[in-house]
Amino acid sequence: MAKPIGAPPATALPMVLSVNDRIPDSKGSIKYKLIQDAFDVVKASRHSSLLARLNFKDAFCHILVWPANWHLLGFTWQQEFYYDIVSGFSLKSALYIFNLFTEALYWIISQHVLGSLKHCLDNFLAIFSPLTPISVASTAVDWIQGLRVALRLTFQDEKTL
To answer: Which residues in 36-55 are b (16+ Cβ under 10 Å) and which e?
Structure first.
């Protein structure tokens, strides 16, 4: 069994089975936003509210892995080494990191869009009062789509309403 020069004795280290074993539980879980929050905003804004829904495509692929960490997420097959360059769903902290990313995106969008904005992970819902002209709501959605292009994000067009 090969080991690096100067490595501590095997008995000094805890058994590590995967990269996930070294990620603390606090970095592997999140508290979801409640859909009831969005319902309450729609209910408060009355009948005929305008809604716009946007949903990421391949959500976790928006989070790049730092090149120095590629070797941690790889495997060898037929004497070739393969590794992920984007966050994989199986990584314990992927959900936590992706949520931090979408919280930042939520903050950016909410600073530029008139109306109420709700999100849960990769789903965003913009809620506009019935008094908001359709042209204003449409311009807001266009602005979000422009941000998507500028940041090279992908949304699921079939789920964008």
So the answer is: eebeebbeebeeebbebebb
Q: What is the 3-state secondary structure (H, E, C) of 30-91?
A: CCCCCHHHHHHHHHHCCCCCEEEEEEECCHHHHCECCHHHHHHHEEEECCEEEECCECCCCC
C-alpha torsion sign, points 87, 91, 97, 98: positive
pLDDT of residue 4: 36
Could you tell me the pTM of the whole model? Answer: 0.68
Asked if residues 117 and 124 have their Cβ atoms less than 8 Å apart, the reply is yes
**Bridge partner list, 116:** 127
Rounded Cα distance between 130 and 133, Å, is 8
Cα–chain center distance at 82: 24
Those residues of the chain that have pLDDT short of 50 are: 1-10
Q: Choose among 107, 108, 104, 113: nearest CA to 138.
A: 113
CA 91 from centre of chain: 13
Report the pLDDT value the prediction gives residue 14, as an integer from 0 to 100.
Answer: 57
pLDDT at 159: 65
The residue behind tokens 């879980």 is 29
Q: What was the pLDDT predicted at 2?
A: 38
